[in-house]
Amino acid sequence: MKRAPAGDDEPLEGDIGPAAGAGAPAAPGPAPAPPVSEAAEAAQALRRFDAEREERRRATNAVAGRIAVALAALFLVFLTYDSTATAVRAHSRGDAWIYPPAVVGGACAAGLVALLTWGWRRRRLGM
Predict the structure, then answer these.
(1) DSSP designation for 5
(2) Residues 6+ apart with CB under 8 A from 11
(3) How far apart are CA 45 and CA 41, in angstroms?
(4) What pTM did the predictor assign?
(5) Model confidence pLDDT, tens digit, residues 19-46
(6) What values do phi and psi take at 44, rounded to 5?
């Protein structure tokens, strides 16, 4: 077998071993650190993007909260109306009208008043 001279350590295609990396460019290691100004700009851009994302998240949550409060208020209005109508019908037939329907209607009305008061105070305080 013929040995190659010491200066001919060029790897062949598909060659493996210690001489394979001799002619190849350096292995990719950690990238050089960007200049300080670029790093500062990147950090500032990242903070700005985070602030914008947080602002969008807060706006989305505010809209979702308003929708949830409106749906809860509508649900309580319906339950109050239904309980009142049931209590009136039960009273006209001579059935028990205070305990099941009137109490449920009163609880729903109290919940509705509490929900509307809470919403009014939040709006007034600017929360």
Answers:
(1) P
(2) 17, 19, 20, 21, 22, 23, 24
(3) 6
(4) 0.62
(5) 555 555 555 667 666 566 888 899 999 9
(6) -65, -40
